């Protein structure tokens, strides 16, 4: 596979950035017609937000906040300027969080992810994501149909009925979790059913470890991964290069220090923050709570957009110490108060019957005086006492972990 979905995927990154940020001011103005964005972005000159540096100055909206915000101002927390009836479908996800589907073609922007995985017009796709109340099934259904595929809306479960459909329609493609794909293949093998028509897959929604990747490949299926959410649709996807995931077009992705909105250094692990440019349903700096890191350079497949390593864990590392919550943003605050510090990691352990905190801090200028100053800041910020261990720059792993609960 060497073709690309369209010319947008291979344009120079500088051209892409210029185009995205030329559109952003109008999207911001439209977003501020919604009361919640109007309050959050009060005093912001939307016309001046034309660069990543300017965007980084806007507040982040944490996905973890959405359930409470949606409950307080149903259904969308005041973040959607349009009326609910202006959308095509209305969903809910655990939380609950309420999500609308737009009426435009490919509302979840997944057609190019399917294309990168080898799907082509007139392919038949078995879609096993759930269609019940949540948007998962519709995300992949709409994306496949936008590409020109025919979709079997199978949903998960009912393997016997699925075998009947597979043997009748002979789908070449599968979309669903990798776990359910293995269940189908195992059940088919044990019952003598023919699912050999399935040659490619786009999987998401669950871990796809190398061992399972190898097993699926050994069964004759070329499977690719995609990263998405019920809020944004398909965010990034694997390509034939098999080097991380390429960020989708029409999205601005940032990687920030967990608990903050501050961009990390290039290559560092941090929290994924996404801004979408859909004027009907904009997301401005939505912090997903997922960790990843940017890869340098364009993909060998020819796509030039930003690449990420893929899903690398959760950014919300809040833990309770001696009955009090300690949060990543508190650790970030300690770092802001001491310019000489690099990466920080708060390690929580047990000694005897007591919780113990140890703040490990990278610095090139270790001293007893600095250690005492940081210990004072640790107590002031967290309202808890703890130890401070100063380590050399680069000693802490680049994994995005700010709080390590080792109890």
UniProtKB/TrEMBL annotation:
GO terms for molecular function: phenylacetate-CoA ligase activity. InterPro entries: AMP-bd_C_sf (IPR045851), AMP-dep_synth/lig_dom (IPR000873), ANL_N_sf (IPR042099). Its EC number is 6.2.1.30. Residues 119-275 form the AMP-dependent synthetase/ligase domain. Keywords: Ligase. Pfam families: AMP-binding. It is an enzyme of class 6 (ligase). PANTHER family: BLR5969 PROTEIN. This is Phenylacetate-CoA ligase.
